[in-house]
Amino acid sequence: MYKIAIIEEFHKSGLNLLDDNKNFSYEIINNASEENLIKVLPNFDGCTLRVSKLNKKILEKCPNLKVVSRHGVGYDNVDIRYLKDNNITLCITANANAIAVAEHVMYMMLCISKGIISHDRSVRNGQFKQGIKDTQTLELDGKEILIVGFGRIGKSLISKCKSFNMNIKIFDPYVNNETIDKLKCIKVDNLKNSFKTSDFISLHVPLTKETENLINLESLKLMKKTSIIINTSRGGVINEIDLNKAINDGIIFGAGIDVFKNEPVNIDNPLLKNDRVLLSPHSATFTDECKIRMAKNCTQNIIDFFEKKLDKSMIVKL
Ligand code: NAD
After folding, report:
1. Is 188 a pocket residue for ligand 1 (Cβ < 6 Å)?
2. 111 burial class (0-12, 13-18, 19+ CB within 10 angstroms)?
3. Number of domains present in the structure of the chain
């Protein structure tokens, strides 16, 4: 029987798959501190992982570990070098997240450009029409969106932006022209030039050395005063101090931020006090439907791994 550690609990529909399979037993570990994982993880054959960190100090205490199944698609919280060197498979819930994140991007773009939060506040405060004159609002129709990173989520965003009659530009040096042409979008090779013309910029890249601080004061200064930037990728991709300054100085219009450099976000993070920033707590995938898809995909990957039928698209090439 394979012993599986569920590091940080998720939707029961995923756990039910393990309950129904006599080849697996599992234990839920909700204390995901380094200290506790070093203590409790050594005997497991596989584990699932949400947002907590799985570093070398923990992993080297787990001689039996053969597979790590991420509940999600990003994997910047795992020591992938250690996994590679020790032949541990890393899998992700590749097909579960894209719709929910793409919908979250649309929600943020609409909410910011329509001034929804301030309008809602002014109606509740008895300022029925007075609030309107102080709030600039914009349309999506005919506007240019630059999608940075054209993987599963970037692609899922296309049909939604098209239905709002937006012009779509794509920056992703690792995707060929054909794929982008087929979807009737425009591939751009020069990110800086594209910043200058875009009304909306949506980030869908992994956090890597190359993408860390991709959006900083220098790049923000290239953007239009009316531009809105949405980040549902990873916190480190935007320099938060620079973003806050750019919005306060009128360099760009506003931002929608689902992910932060430090999570949970520090209470003294200046973005928390900026009214032109719409915030969410890394919750783009927290729809009921997506929670179920992720949970099932996550445990099914564990089962498929041990039953030697894991789909290649779920495996991260290390
Ligand atoms: P994906 O791997 O399918 O796509 C990522 C794309 O980024 C790839 O096409 C890749 O070529 C491209 N890319 C890599 N480096 C780049 C660079 N320097 N410039 C431009 N493009 C670059 O991943 P995905 O499923 O679309 O997810 C994207 C990211 O979104 C994930 O890495 C994860 O960090 C984040 N995410 C966040 C949430 C959330 O809850 N907010 C949920 C899911 C994923």
Report:
1. no
2. middle
3. 2
